[in-house]
Every structure is written in structure tokens, then in C-alpha cells.
Specification:
Elements (H helix, E strand, L loop, with lengths): L7 E2 L1 E6 L5 E6 L2 E5 L4 E6 L4 H9 L1 E5 L6 H6 L10 H4 L4 E2 L8 E2 L4 E14 L5 E16 L4 E2 L2 E2 L7 E3 L6 E3 L14
Antiparallel strand pairs: 1-13, 2-3, 2-6, 4-5, 5-10, 6-9, 7-8, 9-10, 11-12, 13-14
């Protein structure tokens, strides 16, 4: 399924637990779900540190993963004890956010500060709970590096965004030459 439903955007999520412990981890089950209000979400397939933190504090930050940051992002997915600082592990700079008490990745060109709206335990078709939970959050603040804006619009193809592809190590790099346009037909 991972190879078919892809490539997928990466939810590079920073969070802070009620004890102050900070976590940074990438999630390949991530997407945007609503415009107004802006809602994004990620799915944690087990009871991981990010899930624990967002359930305790109700806040998280999404950080844009790019080709330039890919290796450092990958370091943050290591299975390490709760108290290990993944910012340090990835050689990344944690900077304060404006509206949530969760740091964001300074090196990332885009950060979304979020307040949790729902945490949904996923179930199979028979109603049996799975180990996975879907976390949804409203974007309440946005940080975009100025060089990633062209005429006031985010430069998707110039930003170097990476996506998860099929297989345990496969990624895709969004480049300008991969773009094509389709326009909505008139009814």
C-alpha cells in the first residue's frame, strides 16, 4: 500500500510533553484536510513520543522537509529513548514558536504552529481498534522564509520539498521539471 499511495508529504512534527521534553519525528502518513479553518494531520501507527506529547499538551508544529534537510530529517526518525533530543541528534536548531509552546526547526523554510482539534483512534471495518491514531490540528500560525515566496505565493517547485515513496528508504524530490498543469473543465 505504501508504494501505491504515494508519494506522500512528510509530517515532520515537533512536540513537547507536559514535562517539557521535546520530540521531533517525521511521519509519512500526513496531509492537509481542510482550508477554513486550516486543518492538517498525521497518523502515528503506534503509541510514539509525538502522540504522547500532543495528547498531553494539545500542540505541535509541522516543519517542511526538503532535499537539503533530508539526511538530518532522517536522523530524527531513529528509535531513541523519550528523553533524547532529536533536534540535537539531527544537528538542527530549535527556535521558539509564537503561539504554541513547541519549538520549530529553524532550518526549515516553512513551519505551521498547530493546536490539536482531534485525536482519533483508528478502527478496522469490524470496529476493532488498531494501534494507530490520527492527530488533527488547526494551523494557528505560519512561518515562511521569504526566499520561498514568488509574487506572494509559495514556490512549491523551488522549495526542494521531499515526499515519501514506496519502500522503506524511497523518497521523491519535487523539482520544477516535474510540473505539469491541468485546468478544471467547464461543466
Amino acid at each position: 500500500m505504501n508504494a501505491i499511495v504515494g508519494p506522500r508529504p512528510i509530517g515532520w512534527i515537533s512536540s513537547r510533553g507536559s514535562d517539557g521534553t521535546v520530540n521531533l519525528a517525521p511521519y509519512s502518513f500526513f496531509n492537509a484536510f481542510n482550508y477554513h479553518p486550516p486543518i492538517i494531520g498525521f497518523s502515528s501507527v503506534a503509541a510514539k513520543d509525538s502522540l504522547r506529547n500532543v495528547q498531553e499538551t494539545g500542540e505541535f508544529v509541522w516543519n517542511l522537509a526538503t532535499r537539503e534537510l533530508a539526511e538530518r530529517m532522517n536522523q530524527t526518525c531513529a528509535a531513541v529513548p523519550y528523553e533524547v533530543d532529536e533536534f540535537e541528534l539531527g544537528g538542527l536548531t530549535a527556535v521558539p514558536s509564537r503561539l504554541v509552546d513547541v519549538p520549530r526547526v529553524a532550518e526549515s523554510g516553512v513551519n505551521f504552529e498547530c493546536k490539536v482539534t482531534d485525536v482519533v483512534r483508528l478502527r478496522d471495518h469490524q470496529g476493532v481498534e488498531t494501534p494507530a491514531s490520527l492527530v488533527l490540528g488547526e494551523v494557528i500560525a505560519v512561518h515562511i522564509r521569504q526566499d520561498l515566496l514568488k509574487d506572494g505565493i509559495f514556490d512549491t517547485f523551488g522549495a526542494g520539498i521531499i515526499l515519501r515513496a514506496g519502500g522503506p528508504s524511497a523518497y521523491v524530490h519535487v523539482k520544477p521539471d516535474s510540473r505539469f498543469d491541468l485546468f478544471r473543465p467547464d461543466a
